[in-house]
Amino acid sequence: MCGIMGYIGKGNAIPVIVDGLARLEYRGYDSAGIAVYRPDNDASEAYLQVTKKKGRLADMVDALGDAPASQLGIGHTRWATHGVPSDKNAHPHTDCSGNIALIHNGIIENYAPLRKQLMLEGHDFVSETDTEVMVHLIEKYYEDSLEEAVRKALGAVYGSFAIVVISAQEPDKIIAAKKASPMIVGLGEGENYLASDIPAILGRTKKVYIIEDNEFVILTADSVTISDFEGNPVEKEIFEVTWDLELAEKGGFEHFMLKEIHEQPEAIRKTIAGRINDGMVDFADLDFNDVLKKINKIFIVACGTAYHAGLVGRLAIEKLAGIPVETDIASEFRYRKVLWQPDDLMIVISQSGETADTLAALREAKSHGIKVLAVTNVVGSAVAREADRVIYTHAGPEIAVASTKAYSTQLVVMYLLAIYMANIRQSYDQDKLKGLTHEMCYLDTMVEQVLKENDALKALAGKYRDVQDTFFLGRGLDYAVAMEGALKLKEISYVHAEAYAAGELKHGPLALIHQDVPVLALITQDKLVDKSMSNIKEVKARGAVVIAICKENLQESCQECDEQILLPRVNPLLAPIISVVPLQVFSYYMALYRGADVDKPRNLAKSVTVE
Ligand code: F6R
């Protein structure tokens, strides 16, 4: 996620901002920029000096050179979402006059029509970002008050944002506003700070205001005024930071993995943002309808967790869009003879966008003239560059090696795509598609609800911490999630975990079941519950303890299971996004209890660029 740092006060803003951004570097970024105020002097009028560079923060600092001190400035590290990493797309963005500079985290969902309108009104755009519309809107509304102009601009946009704005006309203040992207104010003596996260200001102050959604901040060197977007004052308590740098980087969580598990509701919101219009999924801006309408067959190709997302994608696309789909492991796909047909489509899924096997499979498809659609988290990654079209998951940087929020957002994209294709191909009942689209908007709150089971899952992990072997069972979509659950457990806790299609167990692996092998059973598919229960009886008869991850409404049928983790009622098709969460949390605590290095499991790397 991008980093924000702003400063106003008696000191020099430049080193404070650079140092703050450096403390946010661990989150990953692809470009950096700074805007500082230069007061008028004999040679020139007051202006904002803006320096932006693709690459490392140090590259930006080099470009800035020996800049004179300034008492006002804002800085940003960008992790690309709209537009590739480049100097032009880096923040801060400025208005046409260069008098207003703005940095932004989040996504302005309605940026496309706003941009069109502002261009018609004569505004010059220089970047491909969604952010730039915001600064031109502020310019449009600016008369003599930056505060008023920002308030008016906020009324015209929707989406998620933490924005910070300065103007050469009003150098005594920084204006900021927040909705669904983090922001804090650091309180100093004769100086104040604005940042996206606490690590940025650690070492300068321990007194912080945590800015909440729909809050508007006016920062001067000596004061902080907080109101809502309408201008009604907001009273705030000062939060005393007791965290050290390491804890602060993890947002107060002990590990990045747990932090990222808890970021899933927000990540899901961001993935959906801007992709639903009038109650229906809208990917018209992909400009790919002609291909999507006539697809013969889809090959989904990916590795590891992304492959598991592809398995869910397959079932969703087949059910809704009625297109035959094969989901393959990239390292296998590359070496088999694929019977390509004209109008086949390959979908590659990759968090990093750099996985060697996935990239090779993509190239193989392209060499046969097959169109490729990439689903990735990293803007400008190899997969994004080489595919014909790309859908970004917008999960934000994932630091823990074990993938969590990347998986759930990959699932979101697969569902959105399945619904979209079904709609344009008219392969599924329109009202039902609208119903599903509507339900997708509640997935974030359902995940929040499941995350409240944290303590129960921790206790469960404590109880089974010493097991050697486990089985994960499910049917249909539950089987796909069982595979992801088993992968999470083995990769971070080093407990042997096998995922099996529940109905397949009796064809061999049942021989491995005994009293010391706990079985985690996924039960979210209403129509398959009786069949799954028969399989659960089989393992119980061999002495296994069964932990059911089941939907509330199916609880009655799961009475015979030894433990139950209940999930909210969710459409069976969408259940994987919800049911994977307890498995992630359970694996996390198993790893913790067993003393494993949760964020950096042995033998594994975050980005697998070797074949
Ligand atoms: C497991 C995990 C890996 C990745 C796999 C593919 O938690 O993260 O299995 O999913 O290495 O990586 P990407 O998605 O970057 O292609």
Describe this structure in words.
With 611 residues, this protein is an alpha/beta fold. It has 3 domains: 3-246, Glutamine Phosphoribosylpyrophosphate, subunit 1, domain 1, CATH 3.60.20.10; 253-441, 3-Layer(aba) Sandwich (Rossmann fold), CATH 3.40.50.10490; 451-598, 3-Layer(aba) Sandwich (Rossmann fold). The strands form 5 sheets. Strands 3-2-4-1-10-9-11-14 form an 8-stranded antiparallel sheet, covered by helices on one side. A 6-stranded antiparallel sheet has the order 5-6-7-8-12-13. Strands 18-17-19-20-21 form a 5-stranded parallel sheet, sandwiched between helices. α8 (264-272) runs parallel beside α14 and α16 (443-451) runs parallel beside α20 (575-593). The radius of gyration is 25 Å and the shape is globular. The chain binds fructose -6-phosphate (F6R). Fructose -6-phosphate is lined by residues 303-306, 350-352, 355, 358, 402-403, 487, 491, 607-608. Residues 303-306, 350-352, 355, 358, 402-403, 487, 491, 607-608 line the site of fructose -6-phosphate.
Q: What is the annotated CATH architecture of the largest domain?
A: 4-Layer Sandwich
Distance between the termini: 29 Å
Overall helicity: 25-40%
Which ions and ligands are bound to the chains?
A: fructose -6-phosphate
Please provide the count of β strands: 26
Pairing-aware structural class of the strands and helices?
Answer: alpha/beta
The spatial strand order of the largest sheet comes to 3-2-4-1-10-9-11-14
**What is the molecular shape?**
globular
Oligomeric form of this entry? Answer: single chain
Report Rg. 25 Å
* Beta-strand residue fraction: 15-25%
> What is the average of the pLDDT values?
94
CATH topology of the largest domain: Glutamine Phosphoribosylpyrophosphate, subunit 1, domain 1
The CATH superfamily of the largest domain appears as Aminohydrolase, N-terminal nucleophile (Ntn) domain
The parts where pLDDT drops under 50 for at least 5 residues are none
How many H/I helical runs?
20
